[in-house]
């Protein structure tokens, strides 16, 4: 099995939780995909980076990140996977709100001004979190080349409507789930 198949197995075995839940979008579902169980797992996290680098191999970017907390381990996995491939890739973190002290930055890490960046998220239903990150990145002077997620729960339409390319490593159907 390759990285893509191996990661899918980790997701279905570790991250899919059955039971009634309320999503961050406010919608209710009979199951939840808790990707932090995968993105923070010792064996699965390296696969996240590899799979998302492969997914976006034809996009040119030199930094990756998104809205904290869901995007943080995704970006770090990609940073480490890129390093293993001898590719330079920085990571950044987008705060939900700006800091009131210190440098008062909303985008933390290496400066993104004038750089081509990829916005990531672990999973997205409405696209609101990743689009919040995109807005902050654009305000910081970055050129957002696209959005990539591990699992798409339906955000593609909203992201594309905002004028951005969108890719997901897995759909709900890929995981044997229905919306």
From TrEMBL:
The encoding gene: pyrE
Role description: Catalyzes the transfer of a ribosyl phosphate group from 5-phosphoribose 1-diphosphate to orotate, leading to the formation of orotidine monophosphate (OMP).
HAMAP family: PyrE (MF_01208)
Keyword terms, alphabetized: Glycosyltransferase, Magnesium, Pyrimidine biosynthesis, Transferase
Residue ranges occupied by any Phosphoribosyltransferase domain in the UniProt entry: 108-159
Protein name (Swiss-Prot/TrEMBL): Orotate phosphoribosyltransferase
Primary enzyme class: transferase
EC number of the protein: 2.4.2.10
Lineage: Bacteria, Bacillati, Actinomycetota, Actinomycetes, Micromonosporales
Binding site for orotate: 125, 153
Domain of life: Bacteria
Catalytic activity annotation: orotidine 5'-phosphate + diphosphate = orotate + 5-phospho-alpha-D-ribose 1-diphosphate
Assembly and binders: Homodimer.
Entry cofactors: Mg(2+)
